Amino acid sequence: MVELSLYVLILFAIAALMQIDFFFSILYLFFGAVVFSRLWARRALSHLQLERRLVNRAFLGEEVPVVLTVRNTGWLPLVWLQIHESLPIDLIIPNALRRVVSLAPRGRAELSYILRGRRRGYYTLGPLALTTSDVFGFEENTVRWTHADYVIVYPEIVPLEKLGLPSVSPFVSLPTGRPRLFEDPARVIGVRDYHAGDSPRHINWKTSAAAGQLLVKKYEPAIALDTVIFLDLYESNYTRRTQDWASECAIVAAASIANHLTERRQAVGLITNGRDPLAKEQAMPHPVPTRRGQAHLMRILEVLARVEVAGTQPLTTLLSRQQPELPWGATLLIIAGRESEGLPEAIVAARHAGFPVVLMLTDFRAPSGRIEQQQEALGVPVHRIRASDDLKTLFER
Amino acid sequence: MQRTWVQKIFQPAVVATMMACIVVSVVQLLQLFVPTWSGVYLTSVVFLAALEAPAAGRLLRRRRLGWSERVSFRVGEWVLILIALKLGSYAARSVDALIADMALWQEDIGYFFSVEYIITIGLTLFTWITAADIHENLADLAMPYRGVAIDREAIRSRLVGQFFWGGLMLLIVAGITRIGVAQILNLRHPPVPGIIINALLYFVLGLLLLSQARLMALRARWQIQDIPAVSDVGSRWSRVSLAFILLLAAVALLLPTSYSFSLLESIGVILGFILQSLHMLAGLLVLLLSLPLLFLLSLLPGQAVESPPMLPRSTPPMVPASPEAGGPSWWAVLRSLIFWGVVIGIMVYTLRSYLGYRGELLGEVRTRSWVARLWAFLTELWRRIRHAAGDSVEPLRRRLAELAPEGVDIGARRLWRWRRLSSMNPRERIQYYYLSFQHRGEKAGRPRRKGETPHEYSGSLRQKKPEVEPDLTQLTDAFIEARYSLHAITGERAGLLHETWNRIKRALRA
Questions:
Q1: How far is B179 from chain A (nearest CA, A)?
Q2: Residue A203, SS3 per DSSP
Q3: Which partner for B54 in A114, A289, B135, B439 could form a disulfide, CB atoms 3.0-4.6 Å apart?
């Protein structure tokens, strides 16, 4: 551009020195070409509207068609516009959409691509870079559209037989005659802190107002069939070699069991120490309370879709912290890679507190621990989850 | 790579025409010294040579000849060109003249290389080399990746330089021709009017060529990066760039190129006009203020004053009207003002661009103590003026809105509304519809209470106006989306809501 400024100055000097009227016309033409073409390109970019249309939830293996619409709302044409959209490599290869379009005044272009849910997760689409220039190439401008849409790919749900679990009940070792307990809303026994997912009907407004924080009513327990899944995604509880495989297997097991229980109209909840990319400072996701129904299952699946292995909080700490908040008499289903240090003690404590416990281990390379060896004596059934061939291929991809 | 018709026909023709445009000016200059010089012949020769250069270059590239073969090819080519130039100069003369001259060449070879012939060779060689170089640059721009990175920006910059310096040469030669060689050092010569067609053609074609070169470079880039481009890029590019350049040329030709008044004179005329207007305004104000006073004075009882005796009327002598007496012509002032405005605009923009690209220079200038103080003073002054203007205008606007009669207010608001609506983006428009609905609801006796959510508010109105229930829901949903969402809101959505909003308004009015 410096050279162009210099050329304009030279033309001006020649026109002024020679005093030939027409030279000024040439100066205007050259100057106009330099200035207005640049202004055009800049202005045209500021009149672009973009929109992505997609269904942002998919099950594993499903296809998600995405339509990207680019609208030129201005009165100036955009002779070329390069679109570069960054996409997650787990959903599409190559991991970018790159096209060049030309937009008439008030025109629009539609670009479409298909994402394939090849791996569970929470994926963001974008950012999107738009590049154009004037017709002479004096200046090239790029703007970024930072609005990011997201796609959630739910974890795979498999029949329990594929995980090596009995299909009738994974909790086969539970004493069948023992009554299970649940909360009776007619009998309030106190209050506790509000957690996301608690029914607004259970909020004690007066006490909340007095305490300055939301509090919900605690009910006296009654007969229950609630199950709380404790999914251990603490980094140190997995061996480095099998971490990816075993953690994914644990997530699939959690999703499959949640689905299995929901189909049987049983209440299920989820507590995990994994990292949620959507949580503040990428902390742990909020515990999902025990509820019934498909909508609740989808909530669990969404958390399971997003959650990742992290070094946030050991499972034993999580168990002891969450225990007071759990519905009385609920079955604790612990899914972990291997028996971690302190877990037998934590399980015994839970048993003593009145919670039946079931342990599922996914790391097939991990040696048998104390609980597994003394499961009969402890009254804690232990299952080694056996991944099916499908699962194996899923994780090998 | 497949060559398009643009590369095969358009570019060689444009380059050849540009070369011919330069030579036309040179010929016109030469004709000042030798009036019998054949301009048509020289221009045609140059045009053909500029066409031949890229064709020969392509042939050489295609055959992939060795160095010695290339030299032999070029020597043979130029021998043919020289013979053709000589024979061509006899095209307008008879064969007898050729035969007679041939006899002279045998006696003395110096006759063969006449001054006219040598100048023709020189100009042909210059245009031939320049055309070949331009085509070489264009071919490099369009070349896809072949293992070696090509600095396309440098090539494009070279092309711009070739175009500019060629144009400058053309202008200087054309300028000397028009001013006259004797007057060239006289800086006080009168302005020279008129259009120089070949110069205009050169610059228009040059800009078109630069535009096509840009397209070629982009296509090569897309090909290298494997980015699919829609098919209509090329056609739209050609149409748009041609229209843009022609429009620019038309505007450039319409803008004033000279001035009747110097910059200071033009400013003086404008200031004079402003002062005169202020003077008139003040007079009018005094008159308006004195009218009630005069009326009151007329009501006071008093004795009639005897009027003095009338003096005999004298007739002033007639003064012959002078052309200056009527003041400056407004058209001339306007033209001068536009001219100076454009020139100052060009200077400021150029300086700003230069300093913008030399950021450190601008920073250094700003850090100089007196410049820094002046800069700080000016920015502070500007901030205060804006602040003061805002402070004084806002209460006035509010007061006017309060004072305006109801009917006038509605009309003015409607006008304002349409003006604003057209300039609003879809998100703002939806918010405007909702706020307007809320305003009308308030007028209809149901104001929105503090802390009431949009859904609660529309729910309460639904009970009053059940006939517009779906419309209320639609507008409220759209408002919440527009207010709290991050995704783009389409114009279509806002357009659909316009009717909904109208229906609600009608219902609330009823």
A1: 8
A2: strand
A3: B135
